[in-house]
């Protein structure tokens, strides 16, 4: 986190921002341009509403780090704001690095807790699956599908592991958003009808509908297993790193 904060702040606030201010003869434009470039550097180039929101959010963070630089800047602040100098003062840069590092540590902490919670849920669910139907019909369908397709226990365990890991709201189902997020996170080679990778939400919804027997627009573990078997090749390669012994 510290190394990321140092390198990115030196690059975006220490080098780019004052030089962009010089180029545009306007410090506000320098701040805006460097913040936008910061956002673009953290963008996944995935054309979607969610991706656009993340781009906006990262640009906002870049703007906040730029403000830290300017607020704690030293004697060179006045010359920076008239856009005629590219001097970098250490005080402002250290402030931006500190703010960036604190943000990264908090993001790492939150991500760690989120992943740890999801792993714990996955482990529990492999031992004691969540009750999504009172009569146990879903698990019975899993056994029937496994028997019909002669699936070994290792494949079933891996499929269940992936399913519960994708079930981020821990309700016993995987919806289109969770499935697409998993395809993005684990680098699936699956492409959409327009050749996009990962597939669009419309394509992911169509995938779910193709096996959604109860038409609730989300997958239970049996429907997820059917989807896995429908996909070409070995769809579990994308998440093989998730396999562990509970």
From TrEMBL:
Read off the InterPro entries from this record: EF-hand-dom_pair, EF_Hand_1_Ca_BS, EF_hand_dom, Rce1/LyrA-like_dom
Q: What biological-process GO terms show up in the record?
A: CAAX-box protein maturation
TM annotation in the entry: 27-45, 51-72
UniProt keyword annotation of Cell membrane present: no
Signal sequence extent: none
UniProt domain EF-hand: residue ranges: 160-189, 199-234
Q: What domain of life is recorded for the organism?
A: Eukaryota
Q: Spell out the molecular function terms from Gene Ontology.
A: calcium ion binding; endopeptidase activity
Query: Which CDD domains does the record associate with it?
Result: EFh
Matching Pfam families: EF-hand_7 (PF13499), Rce1-like (PF02517)
Supply the alphabetized keyword list.
Calcium, Membrane, Transmembrane, Transmembrane helix
**The protein, known as:** EF-hand domain-containing protein
**Where does this protein come from, organism-wise?**
Pycnococcus provasolii
